[in-house]
Amino acid sequence: MTNLFRYAKWLAVPLVLLMPLGAKDKEDGITKQQADEILSELKQIRQLLEKQAAAGPQQAGEQITKAKISIEGAYSMGSKDAPLTMVEFTDFQCPYCQRFHVNTFAELKKDYIDTGKLRFISRDMPLDFHPNAMQAAEAGRCAGEQGQFWSMRDRMNSNPDKLDINNLVTWAQELKLNVASFRSCVENQKYKNAIQSDLTLAQKIGANGTPSFVLGKSTADGVDGELVVGAMPYQVFDQKLKDLAR
Q1: Do 87 and 14 share a structural domain?
Q2: Residues 57, 7 share a domain
Q3: Is 233 exposed, middle or buried (0-12, 13-18, 19+ CB in 10 A)?
Q4: Distance of alpha carbon 88 from alpha carbon 26, whole angstroms
Q5: Same domain for 138 and 41
């Protein structure tokens, strides 16, 4: 069973339960637009699973669970001397990345990052079937030029359905950025090669879904740890971090 399959299986039941039964735009759970987006995501996961299965049992069954990577050139949050490091490969248009950001990240920040136990690293993994994902990855780095990477990242991760250029520019205005420079940076794809390097790294370590994480002991230039795929709940990461700290 691949990491991707376990990820899809973990997500499938709660997503189905959230979907509205009627044709109304809004119910007690989620909107029709959100349900359609979730169905689209599940369709993409199914296509990826079918593609893996077609490659043959040996290839489809391969699992890379350990990864040692550098964090050079990536945005970092937390103490540089933290004993543990967590690297997230994210797609800002991915609803599961939003789930991690909204439901899990805040607790990790409070309990581990802000207390000096964990260094958190952000890397890009925009998937090609998300039309605004690459643009959003550019926007994060372009905001970073003006010292607002994490604030822009928070807005994008919290609003995966609002990543068109108009919303990005509005957020840039709210953050008091030089909007002309920001927009030019995004539209000229200034960081295309750097983002592609992150994608290549994600592929190399076997990250086959978003969000993906490398979680482990801090090294001089990065992290030596375990690959975790999927928007796991806080309790999963909490236990892994406690095990690593022993």
Answers
A1: no
A2: yes
A3: middle
A4: 32
A5: no
Cα 162 to chain centroid distance, Å, stands at: 16
Q: Which of 26, 46, 61 is the last residue of a domain?
A: 61
6-17: per-residue pLDDT in tens?
Answer: 444 444 334 333
CA distances from 148 to 76, 144, 161 (A): 13, 5, 21
Asked if 92 and 55 sit in the same domain, the reply is no
Same domain, 32 and 71: no
Provide the edge-to-edge strand list for the sheet that holds 66-70: 66-70, 222-229, 212-218, 84-90, 118-124, 75-77
Q: Are residues 222 and 131 in the same domain?
A: yes
For 168-194, what is each residue's pLDDT tens digit? 999 999 999 999 999 999 999 999 999
DSSP readout, 150-214? Answer: HHHHHHHHH-TT--SHHHHHHHHHHTT--HHHHHHHHHTTTTHHHHHHHHHHHHHHT--SSSEEE
Task: Give the domain CATH number at 70.
Answer: 3.40.30.10
Confidence bin at 41 (pLDDT 50/70/90): low
Domain assignment of residue 56, given as a range: 3-61
User: pTM score > 0.70 for this model?
Assistant: yes
CA gap 183, 188 in Å, rounded: 8
Of 10, 91, 2, residue with least CA distance to 52: 2
> How many domains would you assign to the chain?
2
